[in-house]
Give the backbone structure.
Amino acid sequence: MPSTKQGILDAATLASTESSIVSGLWLSRAAVSIKTAFSARLPIFGFASDFNRNLSEWKATFEMIEHLAFHPAKPILGEDVELYEHSAISSPRLASLATEDILLGASLHGAALHGNGCAIHTDCHRAVAHARNEVLERHYCCEMWYRRSVGMRPIWQARSSGRASDVHLRAYRLEVPIEGFLVIATAESEELPFFAIGAGIRNSLIAACSHAVGEVAVAYEDAKLERSGYAATVAARSNILSLRDREQFHERKRYFLSLSSHPASAHTIPLVPSVYSFSVLGEFHAARASTKDLLTPRQFHNHNTDVPVLPIF
């Protein structure tokens, strides 16, 4: 595995295609392979979307490097990496944990961490903010779906402007106690069938909406092609395939309609995740947010089996 940014970029492959449901939106995949103890070569992917193809590919490359940084095989981490803990009320301080404690598959606070609280950036503060937002997105989406504790306001809807003309897109602003805006986007297709949700927290409503739409556009293409990526977990493959299941499609669609047409019935639980960061390749900062109070969508579902599984991945 190359040990420099340029070496990784030279070894990576990039593929981009225009979204079939949002005209002009580019969907990109970056991939590089690593050696592990259990596999000769294991591909690591990054995914992204943007209306600018170059930016879409650059974002996908950043996400690929993020996944390399947090992989337990440590393909791009040195031996003496300092781990910092970030607080909302004090300056960063050296953490008492080892870097291995926050890699994929590690446990912290007595529970496994999950990869969608991770981020990478050339600026440490922005990496920390992005990681925190990743956790908040998932937390408040679960609060909305499983506890009916988050109100939502419709802000945009449209029929697909791409090749798949039967897809309906909608966006909602979630009313949650955060700085910035949390928007969810839904994509719905009777023909495929398909129903899923994308989410984004950004400083502007337009940026949050664009990110959420991009997420659900990526999920649509993966479901359409039944693509979960080589070496994906059984759960990941099952999640993607479930988006094509007609019975689950109708259940999720009906349930979301009931959520969007009624006010929230409870108060949402504020969340303050812990965030840890470390340097990668001398010019990136990787950050991971976690909290012992957070459940995954699957864990929420296990406590609420009468509710369909939240279709956000």
Observations:
- The radius of gyration is 19 Å.
- The domain at 151-263 is CATH 3.30.160 (Double Stranded RNA Binding Domain).
